[in-house]
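WARN retry 2 of 3 for item q-0093 after timeout on previous attempt; input resubmitted unchanged.
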Amino acid sequence: MTALKAKWSEMSLYRRVLLIVMVIEILAFFFATLVMINRPGLEYQDALLYSSTEGDIQIYQGAVDGETARFAVSPEWEVSYQWGDYTYGPYQITEDPATVPDGYEGSQGIEIRLGDEVLFRGCYLPGSTLSLIQEDGEPLWGSSSYAIASDGTILGENGRVITPQEFHEPDLSTLVQVALEPALTHRGSMGFYLTVTLLALFNIIQICFPHLFFRLSLLGRVRNIHDAEPSDFYIAMEQIEWVVLALACLLFYYMAMTTIQ
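OK item q-0093 returned
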């Protein structure tokens, strides 16, 4: 304890502040990352919709493209989706073994309706890139390609303008996955956090023992390294390096906390 007090008292205010900042980063992001890991959600359009229930209705809600996005799924596989002020559905998904096409025996036959309109009949292949196969055996392809003009207008194939309501309409494979196979994930990577912590600890050691690192940098280049003294330029660059590493750790910790697994 005496040695620690002596080391602390010999430090400049600059080094003390940086040391405190590094310790706060390590502890604060540890607890923040744990919180994020323990909040399961549904990944949708590079966002995470967090899971909750309202009675017997399963809810997945979060933010997509700056607006509130919300899936509601009933036990009968009725799915509704809301993005901002736009509402989609309810879509009714029912199981129907008769819709399974030839060659896909053993898969799950389903039908999707929007009111009286039949949107899809075929089978569902969980875990597949093309998860929906139509009744005639043809795969149901996902969303078509689009481009965003300089004024923010969304353009589809052949230059057709796509409205925001149309653009954010969920595709059928998403509806089926949300109802039948909602694979929950979470934000936060403890492995990433620990990797960043190694960098943070390295910076802490540099801040606590600058003379040690100065002498290590001279090994094999100077005979009497114990008599050498760092120049003002070396000290300035060293202090800048501490700040750069502290900021880098802050950025990497944020990435470790928010990345979707």
